[in-house]
Amino acid sequence: MHKDIDKYDIFHGEPSDWKDLQIKVGQVLNDIGFDTEVEKDIDTVRGKVNVDVYAENSRENPKTIIIAECKNWNNSIPKSVVHSLRTVINDYGANFGFIISKVGFQKGAYEAIDKSNVQLLNWVEFPEYFKLKWIETIVKSIDRIGKPLWYFTSPMQDFYDSELEKLSESKKNDFFVLVRKYSEFAFYSNKDYYLNHFTGEIEYLDQAIEKIKKTLPIKVNCYSDYFYFIRSYCQEGLNAIDELFGKQIRKY
């Protein structure tokens, strides 16, 4: 069982408006492996329908489709909204549906999801529903992105030496400047940094963030602040190294 993953939420605070709610719902689903589109037109047996968030994971077999409706309303959601989404899901053949509400749902809405594949969640509940999956997936994805950079910056690695020898002395110096700049955060992208090596479970995430965040140029209020920064910083480092060598050199 994973430990030390309760200090932060995926996102900090509530979405600013309806559009932001759609984007964040789509981002959660995208981060756990779905290809997502916001405000997508889909063709159902009854005609074309526009849905707030469409998410499809075709890497699974069979593929999984989620349709989410985002209601940033100041009043509770009635059962008619549930009935409408149930119809769309059935007519399109989606696997699951979510209605995400700003304030909650009327009693009839909960009755309308009985024996259905629709979930009713407010904004706090939606990311919490996917939190464990999100953390497991984001740790692995950051590891994949950062691994090539970690190999460049680790003093134990020499796979790039033959390419390094082709550079001018000036560019060699530039390379080692990049190594010093990106080595720390390349190390933090490594999934093993957050795992119990005996169980393979995530066990040191919160304490790692508490230690590392003092060195970050951003304020960390949530898990996405931390992981999105590590991801973008590692990608920036790889792009800089690619530019220096004039091509991609990768080891995974």
The tally of strands reads: 5
Which residues sit in consecutive blocks of at least 5 with pLDDT less than 50? none
How many domains? The number is 2
Report, as a whole number of angstroms, the end-to-end distance.
28 Å
> How much β-strand is present in the residues?
15-25%
Radius of gyration: 22 Å
Widest sheet: strand ordering: 1-2-3-4-5
N to C succession of SSEs: HEEEHEHEHHHHHH
Q: Overall mean pLDDT score?
A: 93
Q: Helix/strand/pairing class, anyone?
A: alpha/beta
Tell the overall outline.
elongated
Describe the structure.
The chain is of the alpha/beta class and 252 residues long. Helix content is 46%, strand content 16%. The protein has a 5-stranded mixed β-sheet. β4 (96-101), α3 and β5 form a beta-alpha-beta unit. The two termini are 28 Å apart. 28% of the residues are buried. The model has no long low-confidence stretch (mean pLDDT 93).
Using brief descriptors, characterize the structure shown.
alpha/beta; 2 domains; five-stranded mixed sheet; 252 residues; Trna Endonuclease, Chain: A, domain 1; 46% helix
Please provide a brief summary of the model.
The chain has two domains: 18-129, Trna Endonuclease, Chain: A, domain 1 (3-Layer(aba) Sandwich); 131-245, no CATH class. Helices cover 46% and strands 16% of the residues.
Secondary-structure map with pairings?
Elements: H1 18-31, E1 35-44, E2 47-57, E3 64-71, H2 79-92, E4 96-101, H3 107-112, E5 118-122, H4 125-129, H5 131-153, H6 161-164, H7 169-188, H8 205-212, H9 223-245
Parallel strand pairs: 3-4, 4-5
Antiparallel strand pairs: 1-2, 2-3
Helix pairs in contact: 5-7, 5-9, 7-9
